[in-house]
């Protein structure tokens, strides 16, 4: 089969890779209907994460089950399924508390490489969720978004205690931040302030439910948020970048007693203890437990009440993956969908 492999920063190739197979009784093999490039894939692409050997890429997936192991009973061949970027048994004590990405038996999907024609999914019963029937083609991007960026934006909104009557700020205008806007809207936020300097992303944020746009960053961005909130700051802030600047911008935009939901993969973030101590700001985040939210999110997509697939603004064939990476790296695309 064909799959994407990263050899070094900026060096992405599509090449022949071994066909996946059921290795454990709990495995499933799926044929990808669509896959995509994640913002987190840009960290190694830019050299911020080390690459020690050629690495299969991709951890977002939706497709048709082709084969299952002897212990799999929750999904069957022919079903359309979505799963998270961490495989989980969905039954251990941590999973039952809603943190499947910290499952005691978790397996990272990235090692399987979802930017490919087919992939093996470990712990299939706990990881995969099937749709009522095979969806129409126009819904495939929406279901693919549920595999990571929608679930991650949703978790950020939940972690930030978003809800009715709340003012929510979203730091980051990538796919996760934009879907954090959508999540805040669905969860009933009264005011949603998207921080973005890019007009196409601003327009999508407004379409997803943003009520205000703030273009400034850093201290100027914080001051603008304070100006919009009677000097207090927001009740809830979603941090969807993962840098020192974005994290401090999020914390400083939050009112005392407010909540920050952080889901940007952190790089070089160090929190000033005394400032945090006196801020009375709650911090909660980490790798989003997407599996917790999948049944609800997939039902909303099936019923067409949300269309998260709008974050895909560039649609390429799998063979064009290198061009997709270049487009996202240069911010010419929000998120690239790849067709195997």
Describe the structure in your own words.
This protein is of the alpha/beta class and 340 residues long. The chain has 2 domains: 198 residues, Medium-chain alcohol dehydrogenases, catalytic domain (Quinone Oxidoreductase, Chain A, domain 1), CATH 3.90.180; 133 residues, 3-Layer(aba) Sandwich (Rossmann fold). It has 12 helices and 18 strands. Helix 6 runs parallel beside helix 7. The longest helix has 13 residues. The chain is globular. The protein starts with a strand and ends with a strand.
Concise overview:
This protein has 340 residues and is α/β, with parallel strands linked by helices.
Remind me, CATH topology of the largest domain? Answer: Quinone Oxidoreductase, Chain A, domain 1
Strand segment tally: 18
Task: Report low-confidence residues grouped into runs of 5 or more.
Answer: none
Structural class: alpha/beta
Give the N-to-C terminal Cα separation: 10 Å
CATH class membership of the largest domain: Alpha Beta
Radius of gyration: 19 Å
Proportion of β residues? Answer: 25-35%
CATH superfamily of the largest domain: Medium-chain alcohol dehydrogenases, catalytic domain
| Total count of helical runs of at least 4 residues | 12
Shape: globular
Number of domains: 2
Approximate helicity band = 25-40%
Mean pLDDT: 97
The second-level CATH architecture of the largest domain is Alpha-Beta Complex
* Biggest sheet record: 7 strands, mixed
Oligomer: single chain
- Report the order of strands and helices: EEEHEEEEHEEHEHHEHEHEHEHEHEHEHE
